[in-house]
Amino acid sequence: MEAYARSMTEEVREAVLQSSVLKARSRMAVLTRRFGDPDPLRRLAGEIRQHVLDHLGDYLTQFEKMALGRGWQIRWACTAEEACALIIDICRNHGVRLMVKGKSMASEEIGLNQALEAQGITPVETDLGEYIVQLDGDRPSHIVTPVIHKNRRQIAGLFARNGLGEYTEDPEALTLQARRRLRSCFQEAQAGFSGVNFAVAESGRMVVVENEGNNRLSTTTPPVHIALMGIEKLVPTDRDLAPFLKLLAASATGMDLSVYTHFLHGPRRPGELDGPEHAYLILLDNGRSDLLGGELREILRCIRCGACLNICPVYRQTSGHGYGSVYPGPMGSVLSPMMGGEATLDRFRELPKACSLCGACAQVCPVCIPLADHLVRLRRTLTQKRLSMRGTPDFHLWGGLATRPGVWRAGLRAAGWMAAPLMPLAVRFGPAKGWLANHAPPEFARGQDSFRTWWKKRQGENAE
Amino acid sequence: MNDAREKILAGVRSKSRPLNGDSPPPLDEVVVRVEPTGASPEDLLKRFIERWTAVGGEILYPADLPLICDWIAREAPGMVVLDDDLPQTWLEAIPGSCRASLALNHRIFAAGLGITTVQGAIAETGTLILTAAHGRARLASLAPPIHLAVLRRDAIVPDLLDACGQFGAGAATVWITGPSKTADIEGIIVRGVHGPRRVVAAIIDPKSGG
Question: The whole model's pTM is what?
Fold first, then answer.
């Protein structure tokens, strides 16, 4: 992660920093303008989400029953591989060769595009940012603004190389080029794919929010719609959507409400001419049920708004790519290590440590996830599993010294004598070398009292 | 794949509690509602126009068919697709118009203007409520570069909480809060990415038979 941050060009660093600072500010402006104090609303939203998670078994079955009644065909997937296999199977049954896709982090999570391509099915990302990422063979670096790390010159070059039109650095002209190219895809695709922002247990309704309209197109023209949703995304009632829609829009993009809030009720009804004839919903677990009821259970409240990314001092310096995981930033540092058992935990063992514990993320979270607490808990787990120690000096010797007062005192006296002659060596060798490269070595005065001896003497003098 | 369902539900049930009549935390209306309640229809209309304009929407008010025809002649060249909800008189009055339900997809994509009715609006956020039922309102409001939405003056609700109770029976409901937007390139806002770059709310007074 550190290596990535160092390798970032000044251009990228500037883009990420500017954009995240701006987003964090506009979020705050909207929330305080509209609610005065947004905290009661955040707390309420957190409580509703936690209530759902605490009773997820019942809510899932209630939702399933209602959604089936609306004509959704529901499939369940324990793992990313299962989810991909299910989607490929649906595509085969309907002869799908081209699939238009709305932005979905769950799709990134299961690696859907690669899986489809391997089967000869062409997925086309249609969110402008995701389209740019796909065209460039890149990865999204933010869960809301995927190309936060690219500037207009890079995008202009990319579009010109791919024959979208004349080279131009005008964002409006570039957007128009992408619009033209993607229009034919919407009309030709045999299937549309989308994520899901919320699903309502009492009504079986699904909600997709967006600003561009590509999700609407993906779920309006193609004959098949496939939606992918984590099992945790439920809210109890239709009315509960009101606080979440406000919080999501404000936290994600600093708007009062997203441009399009799309309520999907299943396949088209008899007599309707728009919308899919077949609507599928894949319910994805992929490690989520393991988190339920555990010490990181609140992370499942997450509504993927990206506010914790925008406010995070580490994210601002490293960009999402530094994390090496699908979900970056504070929420990603908690979630990513937990989504695939021991191997994933080991692979992302650095993430919980990439945090200054400043706590800004927990303060902006619209559903009050105690993110910094979670990162500390994860650090403890990693230490217990002896995963976090790799690459860092062994502190067991230190621990042994520090927990035995007699040995400690003797050690201190010895260190007082040894420090001065050893210091020139420490600058060149050993674990302190890196630290000393940027810091002046402390000065040791041989033969003088240690702090402990001095303190004892002082106590004695005061008593007299 | 029923195995997966059983496996996931068993895992979830072992780590969550049954509801047993437990109900979700009550929605504290004071916290969720930001607008003062009990606004008069005039207040709601005023508030809607203010917010709708603020999100980049356009207004024709008070609108009737002749005014809309004038506006189209001035602002919207090209073919016009009309949703089924609008009466035959509109089809006859608007030059170059056709029924969206009789048009193929590519014709709707090629049209210069889509006209649909909307079932209501939300004053709090400046939002149109489009409930798709018959006809092709979903595509006609989306594919052409301009969308003209016909809204009855008395169909405006105060806020999101009220709107969350009215979704209609169709396969989809869309809340439209301004023109299609993106800020993906350097955070600069560009309108009309995939949806229309202009959305016009033509507000008609049902009493005057608009």
Answer: 0.90
